[in-house]
Each structure stands twice: as structure tokens, then as C-alpha cells.
Amino acid sequence: MKYETLCLDITEDCNFKCPWCIQEDVIQGRPHVKGQLTAEAQRKLYEHIDTEEHNMFSFHGGECTLYPEKMLEIMDHIKDKQPKAKLKLFTNGSLLSKSLVESLNKREVEVCVSVSARGYKDVLHLIEKSNNPTTVIKNIKTLNKYNIRFVAGKDEGFAYEALYLHTIFECPIEIDHDYTQFTEWTEEDLKHFEKEVDLLYKLQNNGWKVYADVMGSRLDACDCPRMNIHFYTDGRFGRSAKYHAEYKVPGCSMVHKLLGAEKYKEYYRILTKYIEV
What burial letters (b/e) apply to 51-89, b meaning 16+ CB within 10 Å? Predict the structure, then answer.
């Protein structure tokens, strides 16, 4: 089987502590690997890059921009060995300086900036935690290819939050739900989800020009699509998520696994009211 994407964890360090982060699932109870890649781990990674072709290399973490020199060094090696491959970076955005943005643009990196829900509060959080508080929003908006991903809790609205973030950042908005809560979803949560999806597309049809993807609507909008392999900070290779190995359902197999078949059927019905999955 050809794996389309290689997901790269070049560090497990992070300057944020987002409650919905998937990092604990990634490290699966083993000791946290501090710092950036060791020379041995990087050797294994380069050996793979030199011999195994991928359509995309997706940089995860931890927060990769804590070690920008190492991240850019690996990106340059990829572009040298596989010039047609796409590069994507997932980041909390707080360390995106003007010079780093210029370096990412030069390498044609697509950047996904993740914030949690509650819109304005988390934009304030991004600014407060940034090394460049007066320019961080401007720096993000000077990226050539970027989108904003925000994570909503099961009881939280997301339609107006998407509009708010779209107005500020003027880019596509990707809406994810807190995956750690899916096992807790009730019928009422599904009704709330449908209400927000209806409102989201009503806003778009009224000319507000919000562009948004909702979790499960596109496999390539997910951190762990089915056709990928993962390189971990400790030098191991493996599948990105246990939910995806040969697990075939319409839409997103991770959401199906966590919600259960009956609730996912309703979730999928709601998604397909407006978009083709």
C-alpha cells in the first residue's frame, strides 16, 4: 500500500496546553521525548525520505516552530529529494515571526493555524502567548497558503465563531470538534450540531462569505487521513491513528469509531445536508 502522507513529529515540546490535543494518543503512555530530533532519529527520517515517495509531508508536534532551524532544514531535504511533494505545517501560530513566515512562503508551505473555540477569547490567547504580540495576526495573514482550524466543544456554538475568525483572518476556516468528547455525545448534542451546521450555511448563503469545513466532511482536512504513515519523535514509524487502519466508512472513520454506528449515521446525515462528503 502506498501511503500518501508522511506525518512528522519533529518535537513533542509545546508552549501551549490545549485540552483537546491528540498528543497523548500519539505517544501512547511512553515517556515524553524532550527537545528536537536526535541525530539518529533524523538519520532514520532522511533514509525514509530518500527512498519512499509521498505526495505530502505534514509537520505536526508538539509545536514545530519551537525549533524553526531544524524544521526548515528537514523541509529543505524533502524539497531536494522529492521536489513535487507538498509541505504542510500544523501550528498554534504563536511563534510565526515575519522572518519565519518568509521562510515558509519561500518553501511553499501550506500552514494550518489551530485555535480552540470561543473565538475572540482564543484570538486574545494567541496574541498574549505570542513572541510577537503586536504583529502575530499580521504575520499569519502574510502567509501565502494558510487556513485557521478551531476546535469546538460539544456544547459550544461554532457558526458565528467561524464567521468571526474568517472576518479577522480572511481565510478558509476548518471546524473540528473536540475528539475527546465524542464518546460523550448524546442525541441533544447531535441536535445542537445540526442547528449550528444549519446556521453556518445560512450565514454563507446570506453573502457573509464564510468558507468552512466541518470535521468529517473531508478526509484531507483531518490530521490523520487513512492513507498515511507517521514518523514519531523517538525515531519510530507507524500508522497515525488506530482508528484508520483499513477501516472503511463514508466520511471520517475516527468519528465513526468514537460516536458509534447509530450516532454516526445521524452525524453523517447532518454533514451531507449541505456538502458532498
Answer: eeebebbbbbbbbbbbbbebbbebbebbbeebeebbbbb
Q: How far is CA 242 from CA 26, 41, 173, 248, 250, in A?
A: 10, 23, 27, 13, 17
The three cell numbers of residue 36 are 528536537
Structural contact between residues 101 and 131, judged by C-beta atoms closer than 8 angstroms: no
Instruction: Write the pLDDT tens digit of every residue in 192-208.
Output: 999 998 888 888 765 55
Task: Quickly state the pLDDT bin for 238 (edges 50, 70, 90).
Answer: confident
pLDDT in tens, 265-276: 998 888 888 765
Task: Classify burial at 160, counting beta carbons within 10 Å of its beta carbon; exposed 0-12, middle 13-18, buried 19 or more.
Answer: middle
Q: Are strands 228-231 and 237-238 parallel, antiparallel or unpaired?
A: antiparallel
